[in-house]
Structures are given as structure tokens and as C-alpha cells.
């Protein structure tokens, strides 16, 4: 548990994995502007460090987040500016090009859902409940829910939840494609790290190139994804890791990748 009144976001590494943890338990992990800047800084550190191949974004305690600490973001004298050079936790500006696993539990409201959907894979504890509350508060989503609900689950399901501002559970999130696994509370963070380890057992140049090419499709459509194939070839197929992958197959042994 955080010992500060304002919360914090911590960063640690396990082998090639960055584990980024939101910690403001006394306020159900509500985000302050400083916490959002810390998160952006940690995601940038991860993205810029070639020795880190995957990340897990998780939260301390029983809840992912109750949302933003609204007075600190929108009250008098609030300073919520984020340096555009940093990775945007919502993936609306700079986006990390490496794999990110999001882990959620308990209350996962508003920005918690949006940051989860900005990741690549999500694991939910069976305690997780989700709600996009903005329209019930007289506002509208600003962190990507308005289009990421669509890309994950289609128009009808997206509008069903966005326009009603209803609460739904982990099994519904699984059916929608918002999360990929539901596990018992207490096992959720370990499972997220386990998935990151599975990803990091693969060639990091290959996983990164795969994500970048997929993002090209989301950003610019099918032709951009087709055009990205040449870049994938140039980046990956001449690498030492590609040669190691072939050698390990021929020699019938696990591959040992170096990220080069």
C-alpha cells in the first residue's frame, strides 16, 4: 500500500519485463495528474529501453481505479498537462510499440477501462466490474472509449454500454473481447506476468514488428498494413534472432533470443 496521500506509480523489472503498478489504495487508486505523469514516464522508460521486451500494467489492492481524482484534474489551479514526448497512457498520442499486458480487478471505471483497452492483452480478476460513467456525469469519454469500444466489440455492443453508462462484470467483459482471460482474484497479477513471460520468450524484434504493423492497420487501413510488410522484412528477417529461430528449429531446441 502507498504511504503517500497523493498516490504513486511504481516501476520494477523482472528479467525483460517491466511491471508498472498504480498505488493509491486509500482512494481506490483514483488517478491524480502527478500519477498520470508518473505512469507516462514509466511507459516511456519501458518503450525506450531495448532490454525490456514486454510490460505489465497493474494496480495495488482490491481495485484497478475508481477513475480520475476530478478536483485535481478539473478544479481551480489544476495542472493536468502531459508532455507529448512521453508515451500517452491512453494511446492517443505517442503509443508504446512493445507488448503491454493490462491486469484489472475490482472497480475498473472510466480511465481504467480506457487504459486497459489501450494495452494489447487484458487479464481480469473475477472481482472486476467495469463502467464508462462519463455520460452519467454530464460529460463524454476523452480517453479513447468512444472508438476502442467499437474496435473491440462492434457498434451495437459499444453503444449499449457507452450510452447507458451501466456496470458490467468480468464475464461480460470477456464476452465483449475487452479482456482475454478471467482468473480468480489473487492470481490475476501473477497471470499477467506469466503472459508477459510467454511473450518475452519469443523474438522481441518480431513481437514489436507485429504490433507496429497491426497499429498501421488501425491508423491508416489495409493498404498501410500491406505496405508495412516490407518494413517487417527489413527489420526482422535479416536479424540475428531470425537466424537463431531457424537454428533452434533445425536443432530441435528452445530458441534463445537477444533482441538483435
From TrEMBL:
It catalyses: a 4-saturated-(3S)-3-hydroxyacyl-CoA = a (3E)-enoyl-CoA + H2O; a (3S)-3-hydroxyacyl-CoA = a (2E)-enoyl-CoA + H2O. Transmembrane segments: none annotated. Signal peptide: none annotated. It comes from the Bacteria. The keyword Zinc-finger does not apply. GO terms for biological process: fatty acid beta-oxidation. The keyword Lyase applies. GO terms for molecular function: enoyl-CoA hydratase activity. Keywords: Lyase. Belongs to the enoyl-CoA hydratase/isomerase family. NCBIfam families: PRK06563.1 (NF005126). This is Crotonase/enoyl-CoA hydratase family protein. It comes from Gordonia asplenii.
Amino acid at each position: 500500500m502507498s504511504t503517500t496521500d497523493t498516490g504513486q506509480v511504481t516501476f520494477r523489472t523482472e528479467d525483460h519485463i517491466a511491471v508498472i503498478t498504480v498505488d493509491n489504495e486509500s482512494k481506490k487508486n483514483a488517478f491524480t495528474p502527478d500519477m498520470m505523469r508518473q505512469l507516462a514516464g514509466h511507459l516511456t522508460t519501458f518503450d525506450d529501453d531495448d532490454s525490456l521486451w514486454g510490460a505489465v500494467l497493474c494496480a495495488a489492492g482490491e481495485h484497478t481505479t475508481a477513475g480520475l481524482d476530478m478536483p485535481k484534474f478539473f478544479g481551480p489551479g489544476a495542472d493536468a498537462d502531459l508532455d507529448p514526448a512521453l508515451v500517452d497512457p491512453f494511446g492517443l498520442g505517442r503509443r508504446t510499440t512493445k507488448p503491454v499486458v493490462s491486469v484489472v480487478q475490482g472497480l475498473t471505471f472510466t480511465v481504467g477501462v480506457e487504459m486497459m483497452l489501450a494495452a494489447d492483452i487484458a487479464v481480469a480478476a473475477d472481482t472486476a466490474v467495469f463502467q464508462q460513467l462519463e455520460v452519467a456525469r454530464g460529460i463524454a469519454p476523452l480517453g479513447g472509449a468512444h472508438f476502442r469500444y467499437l474496435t473491440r466489440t462492434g457498434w451495437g455492443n459499444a453503444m449499449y454500454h457507452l450510452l447507458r453508462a451501466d456496470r458490467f462484470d468480468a464475464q461480460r467483459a470477456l464476452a465483449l473481447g475487452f479482456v482475454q482471460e478471467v482468473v480468480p482474484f489473487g492470481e490475476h497479477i501473477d497471470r499477467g506476468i506469466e503472459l508477459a513471460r510467454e511473450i518475452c520468450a519469443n523474438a522481441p524484434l518480431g513481437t514489436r514488428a507485429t504490433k507496429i504493423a497491426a497499429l498501421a492497420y488501425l491508423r491508416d487501413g489495409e493498404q498501410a498494413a500491406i505496405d508495412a510488410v516490407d518494413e517487417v522484412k527489413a527489420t526482422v528477417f535479416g536479424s540475428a534472432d531470425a537466424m537463431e529461430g531457424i537454428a533452434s528449429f533445425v536443432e530441435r531446441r528452445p530458441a534463445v533470443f537477444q533482441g538483435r
